[in-house]
Design brief:
By secondary structure, this protein is α/β, with parallel strands linked by helices. It is 49% helix and 14% strand. The strands form four sheets. Strands 10-11-12-13-15-14 form a six-stranded mixed sheet. A five-stranded parallel sheet has the order 2-1-3-4-5. Helix 3 packs parallel to helix 5.
């Protein structure tokens, strides 16, 4: 199936990429976009160079290059043909011997730069990217009506194949697939069996893997990218970031399944280093005290939310907080210092909590020290902040440009990140301070109305769950108002999943019974339902969970 998917990408004339707005979706889009652009440029380059005569002499090379650059007719195809002639002529001149090889090399380099720029522009015109918050009726209609020869849907789509009703679709997803005609949407009740259309789907669930831990949208998309061209292995690091953003980096096992394939390629490229370490957020950027102070999952007695306790611990272990006047971060510590602090932290935790606090962490060593892009989790959080503020395009551009991203681009991402953090903290505190969490039989929930944005309600629900003493026995559901109804986001502890809870099935069946649609993973899922059905939704969810959990 991966081979067929790669052939579909290679043979497509123009391509529409549709992807989700979170870190997994943004990295998926970056992988898919880079793959498509590179493929089209490769074909154009091969065609241009193979058909070029390349008979210019050494004396005519520079004059010919200058003449082409001065032309103002705007004919890109013609300029590509002319630059290909200059490039191949320069190659021949250098091979046969010339008077001034330095000048010939300079002309050849300039011609190649111009070729790449023009070909990239033509390739961009053939590849479009659209980001979607969810696979809602508007997104499905857009996919149906688009005239591209291939629609590549990343980190979305598997649960809605029955709604697509068109050929030439490639889905690289990890959410629970639609096994028949698919769920009804609010305004489109007529579905057709998805397998009557030419739809290619790559999904770990279809081969018996767990979609919430063994394959994310980015790692599945990467499989296709690598099959299109082995040189795309440099994109594996983005798949690792996507997997960490989707919280598939299990503390003890690390990245498994399809994620492990991407990790292996990224490690072999020297793009990612996997190491066992404390797994708190901010290894590269947070000062030591803040790194320990904000370690809320698991909560560390005498350390979490206790700056004084953190300071006392570090002083007792002879850990310097500054180096040449600058605050040290966790990754500034040498191995011996890390070992002393880690041992002291783990001694304060029980076995289960130790397993959450310590395990595999992932570093991108080619990025500068003390930047958010050097740690996979921090990188993913930056991308999430872009998507949550309707600027997933900027996040994708940072992924594509990598270490060459402009300062202006990076500042924009940091601004999103700062606003994102403030917004999540504000929403979480608002719900806690107003005592908005309620219990309905075996579900903890809150109705937030329009006080919490739909783009962050899932994160807020997860944050509240981590602080909830009932988290081992009840999932957390958040309800917020949206333009098309009510958005529901559900999060659960893995201990409940081990007992049989499948939130994806709950959201899908429950939403369908109240006139909405939903899906996701066993541990995290969402739905959109009509306003006024919230109470019934909770009742039905409880009934479904009663059957699932043992």
């Amino acid at each position: 199936m991966v081979s067929r998917a790669a052939d579909a990408v290679r043979n497509a004339d123009d391509i529409l990429i549709v992807s989700h707005i979170d870190a997994d979706g943004i990295t998926s889009a970056a992988i898919a976009y880079s793959t498509c652009i590179r493929r089209k440029m490769s074909v154009m380059r091969h065609t241009a160079l193979e058909t070029s005569k390349g008979k210019l002499t050494e004396k005519k090379l520079k004059d010919r290059y200058d003449a082409v650059m001065k032309r103002t007719d705007g004919n890109t195809e013609r300029r590509i043909r002319d630059m290909a002639e200059i490039y191949t002529s320069a190659e021949t001149v250098l091979k046969d011997g010339c008077v001034d090889p330095v000048s010939v090399n300079a002309v050849m380099t300039d011609a190649k730069r111009c070729l790449d720029r023009d070909m990239h522009g033509l390739a961009e015109a053939k590849v479009k990217v659209r980001f979607a918050k969810k696979m809602d009726p508007d997104t499905i209609r857009m996919i149906r009506s688009d005239g591209s020869s291939l629609v590549w849907i990343c980190d979305l789509g598997s649960g809605y194949k029955g709604q697509m009703c068109r050929d030439d679709i490639l889905i690289t997803d990890h959410h629970v697939p639609d096994s028949n005609g698919g769920p009804d949407t609010q305004d489109d009740r007529q579905t057709r069996l998805w397998f009557t259309f030419d739809i290619l789907e790559i999904n770990p669930v279809n081969i018996g893997m767990e979609g919430s831990t063994q394959g994310c949208g980015a790692s599945v998309t990467y499989l296709v990218a690598r099959e299109v061209d082995p040189d795309n292995r440099d994109l594996a690091q983005l798949a690792v970031v996507g997997a960490c953003g989707d919280m598939q980096d299990l503390p003890i096992k690390g990245l498994t399944g399809i994620n492990a394939i991407a990790l292996k390629d990224a490690e072999e490229n020297g793009d990612v280093v996997a190491e066992e370490d404390l797994r708190f957020f901010g290894r590269e950027t947070r000062p030591l005290i803040n790194y320990l102070k904000y370690s809320g999952d698991p909560e560390i007695p005498g350390i979490s939310d206790d700056g004084v306790g953190c300071s006392k611990l570090l002083r007792s272990l002879d850990i310097e907080l500054k180096d040449d006047g600058a605050f040290r971060t966790w990754n500034d510590l040498n191995p011996d210092e890390k070992e002393r602090v880690t041992r002291s932290i783990l001694d304060r935790l029980n076995g289960e909590a130790q397993g959450r606090a310590y395990g595999f962490a992932y570093t991108l060593p080619r990025y500068p020290r003390h930047t958010e892009y050097r740690d996979a989790k921090e990188f993913a959080t930056m991308l999430n902040s872009c998507g949550r503020y309707d600027d997933a395009e900027t996040g994708m551009q940072v992924c594509i440009e990598g270490r060459n991203a402009s300062e202006e681009l990076l500042k924009r991402v940091k601004r999103h990140r700062s606003e994102h953090t403030e917004n999540i903290n504000r929403c979480t505190q608002y719900i806690l301070e107003n005592d908005m969490i309620r219990t309905c039989r075996n579900i903890r929930y809150f109705f937030a109305g329009d006080s919490v944005e739909e783009t962050v309600v899932g994160i807020v629900a997860g944050s509240l769950l981590s602080k909830d003493p009932e988290r081992y026995g009840m999932p957390m559901m958040g309800f917020v108002d949206t333009d098309d109804g009510v958005k529901v986001s559900a999060r659960a502890d893995r201990s409940l999943v081990k007992r049989g809870l499948d939130l994806s099935a709950v959201m899908n069946k429950d939403a369908g019974m109240v006139g909405g649609y939903g899906g996701g993973h066993n541990i995290a899922a969402g739905a959109t339902i009509p306003k006024g059905t919230e109470k019934r939704f909770l009742d039905v969810a409880n009934d479904i969970m009663l059957i699932q959990i043992v």
